[in-house]
Amino acid sequence: MPRWKETAPAKVNLALDILRRRPDGYHDLHMVMQSVSLCDTVTVEEQPDGFTLDTGGGFAPRSPRSMEQRAAEAFFSAIGQPMPGLRVTLEKRIPAYAGLGGGSSDVAALLRVLRAAYCPSLCTEAVERIGLSIGSDVPFCVRGGAALAEGRGEVLTPLPPLPDAHFVLCKPAFGISTPALFDLADRTQRTRRPDVAGMAEAVRRADCDAVAARMANVFEDALPPEYAEVFTVKRRLLELGARNAVMSGSGPTVCGLFPNAAAARAAADTLRNAYPETFYAVATPPAE
């Protein structure tokens, strides 16, 4: 049986602003995102029939019909072919429900495999549209690299990957519900608005000092007191030498930007004593 393997990089939000709630219930966002070297591995194999998702017991989908199955069904519906039997195996390294896009990136990697194997002529924009039907972060994860993201996250303007960017990703020992945090954000008075356009320009110039100065996430203003440890992690990252630190996505993972690999690795080693899900990562180029 044919077998394919693809990496699924995590993403970090360097800047994230919520513009408004839309009539369809989604939100218009304004973000700069960057894919990083922390990644899952997605393996796809044909099998006689049906769809099987193997997560190695370390991660359980929230519903019986997983995002991966829905993505595969949507892909074959889009290309007008019957879906073959598929077995998808996830080797999870990206923490789940962490603001790092792990589930979205797994789906994006699966879609890249399916395009290469079954419809190489399908354009990237069509794959992104299929991905958007599964989740708002999937189009960016299909593409990877760095991008200015607007709309739900699907309107993407590519940016050059940030060179010499060294990150520490530190997840406290809890998860945050993205829908619940959006609801809180809708009811929260904004104390600041991230300079997303300035962040995009800083990334274009590969100016890490300007990037650090603009790292911001409006979700932080909406965090209730029980998630205050996010700010403890931010403070520790700054004490350990980060140029700046920001919660990624809807959290709770905090992303610290460091001046060099040695400082980032040392900080990750220190933080891992208290927070086991701490990772050193670098910026990665587009998947295409």
Provide tags for this entry.
Ribosomal Protein S5, domain 2; single chain; 7-stranded mixed sheet; about 290 residues; alpha+beta; 2 domains
Helix content range: 25-40%
Query: What's the total number of strands?
Result: 11
List the helices and strands in order. EEEHEHHHEEEHHHEHHEEHE
CATH architecture of the largest domain: 2-Layer Sandwich
Number of domains: 2
* CATH top level assignment of the largest domain: Alpha Beta
- On the 0-100 scale, what is the average pLDDT? 94
CATH fold description of the largest domain: Ribosomal Protein S5, domain 2
Uncertain residue ranges: none
Q: Count of helical segments?
A: 10
**Radius of gyration, rounded?**
18 Å
Strand content: 25-35%
Topology:
Layout: E1 3-21, E2 27-47, E3 51-54, H1 67-79, E4 85-91, H2 102-118, H3 124-132, H4 138-143, E5 146-151, E6 155-159, E7 166-170, H5 178-186, H6 196-204, H7 208-213, E8 216-217, H8 219-222, H9 229-239, E9 244-247, E10 254-258, H10 261-271, E11 278-282
Parallel strand pairs: 1-8, 3-4
Antiparallel strand pairs: 1-2, 2-4, 2-5, 5-6, 7-10, 7-11, 9-10
Helix pairs in contact: 1-2, 2-3
How would you describe what is shown here?
This protein has 288 residues and is of the alpha+beta class. It has two domains: 157 residues, Ribosomal Protein S5, domain 2 (2-Layer Sandwich); 117 residues, 2-Layer Sandwich (Alpha-Beta Plaits). The protein has ten helices and eleven strands. Strand 1 and strand 2 form a beta hairpin. Helix 1 packs parallel to helix 2 and helix 2 crosses helix 3. The radius of gyration is 18 Å and the shape is globular. The protein starts with a strand and ends in a 6-residue tail after the last strand. The mean pLDDT is 94.
